[in-house]
Amino acid sequence: MRIDYKNKRMERVLIGVNALTSAMVAATFVMLFGGFKEPLLPEVILHTIQVVLLCIFVVEKIIRFSNSVSKLEFWRANWFEIPLLLLLGVAVVGTGRWFAPTTAEAAVVRHFSVGIYLVLQVIAKLCRTSVNLAASGKSPTRTLIASFLVLIFSGAGLLMLPAASAPGKESLSFVDALFTATSATCVTGLIVKDTGQDFSLMGQVVILTLIQLGGLGIVIFGAVFALLLGQALSLRESAAMQDLLSARTLSRIGNMIAFIFIGTVLIEAVGAVSLFGMWDDVPGRVTNVHQQWFYSIFHSVSAFCNAGFSLFSDSFVSYNRSWSVYVVLCPLIILGGLGFGVLYDLVNTAADRVKRFFKKLFYKRYRLSMETPKRLRLQTKIVLSVSACLIVLGMLAILLFERYASGSNPAEKTGVLGALFQSITARTAGFNTVDVSAMSASSRFVLILLMFIGGSPGSTAGGIKTVTLAVVIMTAVAALRKRQEVEMFKRSVRIVVVGRAITVTLLFVAVLFVATLALSITENSNGSTLSDIMFEAGSALGTVGLTTGITRSLTTAGKLIIIATMLIGRLGPLTLLAALTFNLKPVRYNYPDEAIIVG
Known about the structure:
Layout: H1 8-33, H2 43-67, H3 71-77, H4 81-94, H5 103-134, H6 140-159, H7 174-185, H8 201-216, H9 218-228, H10 235-245, H11 253-275, H12 289-304, H13 323-338, H14 340-362, H15 378-404, H16 416-425, H17 441-453, H18 466-480, E1 486-488, E2 491-493, H19 495-522, H20 530-541, H21 556-571, H22 573-580
Antiparallel strand pairs: 1-2
Helix pairs in contact: 1-2, 1-5, 2-5, 4-5, 5-9, 6-7, 6-8, 6-22, 7-8, 7-21, 9-11, 11-12, 11-13, 12-13, 13-16, 15-16, 15-17, 15-18, 17-20, 18-19, 19-20, 19-21, 20-21
């Protein structure tokens, strides 16, 4: 919701003041909780600065209220400010009287209340800014790229703090912190430091936050919180969200965003509860209930976001006999890789069928006059069918090659459940229950193909996407059958979609070969084979996280190449191309055609 102000120049000044104040809030928290050996400033001064910053936020709201054209619209957009200030006042005034009787306890409560208010203010302003930027009339893809870059560098800065490293461990270098932040934000899972051993609880929480924000998109999160704060999206903001979500109609944007947020919370919560009892299967891994809950939440979020980050050095190899790995993690990975558009369509169709059933059962007069039942969209049918085929074919191929394409003892090879898990996780979760480096070359090539394909459009997964693969294959089938149009499920696919699918595939192939070639030059001294290098490049491009073990031995140049590959794989070559060519106008003429011979 955009609010009109009387004095535009004053509003621009307030925007600058807000940005500077938010940066100072972040700086005070870094100084307070960064874990520095010697404090940069005394705590008293930092707490005093935070109180001053709080007053600046309050004064800014008063000035904007008086400067707004419509006071009613201003309060509708900022209704949450009054409850926040009331709670803050109760916490500040009530300490020492109603609760926290001692002076030390009262000081802690006051500092904590001020800190929470400042954090909520900064989050609200970031969310609103992200939506406004997406709706500013400029390319939303550029906004998305800029959001990812800001998130990555902010995460890298936090991971470099001494408090983010485990006790006794040195702070991360800039390149290692940037690598970890990029891997988490791009939900890849490749690591140069052990997530469970080299990071403190703070560092792990930072990684978990980057995974969640990167998996769902910071711009979408901004729109979600804007809706939660009661702000209706304007037509331009809805159009920006439509471009980012690839939704068909503007009327569905609000419902789609709410579905993404609620569905994510519910699925991850159910996953965390279901994983809670699994950690007892390996004695000694988890020491207390709090750690057990954190491990459950971390791996549930990592699985649904297809991130592949694990708090165990061997991923889930030690839990390869636990039923929760296959009954809980596999569904989480699949649901995260299907895409929110597909999940939204499935839920809508199922709800319509249930509603029709009860109408037929209890309202007999509606039996002859009911509307046509909702049917699954073509997108949903393609995603479900291709995903099922890839899971089954990948599992069968891994089983076959592990039994007959390896010279080691077949009795020690991957079983049916292990092959199923690797077939699912290769698109693009990154967990593993078997040692990837010990698999046969043929199986690893199958994994590269699965990583290259990835998940589905609008999902947390990477790769060229299942629909792209289906369109490319059916384009070849249409050419062989001498058909004028590409057809799937008795529907024709537009020629512009065919062009996009071929473009995405060719760009991914080009990036994969360029990254492989560059890594073969930089990692020549490490003795890595071309197979291992291509596997690493494919894992980074597909944002998977599987590795044959060469990630931690990468040179600095190799790490930078992988960082760039992960970012390209997450945002997609077509997104980058659209960002660069957004303002180019299409030509209004065609050249004469002439026959050429191909093949």
